[in-house]
Design a protein that fits this description.
111 residues; alpha+beta; Beta-Lactamase; three-stranded mixed sheet; 3 strands
Length: 111
């Protein structure tokens, strides 16, 4: 996203790591803390409780994760969902690394 802070790069990486490590979208942590008052979730290792991290699971196996940052959490989540759909629709998609990182939804950033 134009004008996004430089920290958005490391935040998107953190969201992707969390989604991969826990095999769930980071929204699950945000909801658990905000809606269910599970504050202890923030003490879990490497958790980030903000939308924009989505695991990539194919045939029950984790193949990577997508992390987006630079907008509001809802915007980050939309960008990640679009990337997830795009990657699952590609016939010969090859994921060379465990994380797909997006810089504000503009272009992939190599880790």
């Amino acid at each position: 996203m134009d004008g996004a802070q430089l920290a958005s790069i490391s935040i998107s990486e953190h969201k992707a790591r969390t989604a991969a490590k826990y095999r769930r979208p980071t929204r699950a942590f945000e909801d658990a803390i905000q809606k269910l008052d599970y504050k202890y979730y923030i003490t879990l290792d490497d958790v980030i409780a903000s939308r924009g991290g989505i695991p990539l699971v194919e045939a029950g196996k984790l193949i990577g994760a997508i992390g987006c940052s630079g907008g509001a959490g809802s915007q980050d989540e939309v960008v990640c969902s679009a990337a997830q759909r795009s990657s699952s629709n590609a016939e010969s998609a090859v994921i060379a690394k465990s994380e797909w990182l997006f810089n504000g939804g503009r272009r992939p950033v190599s880790a």
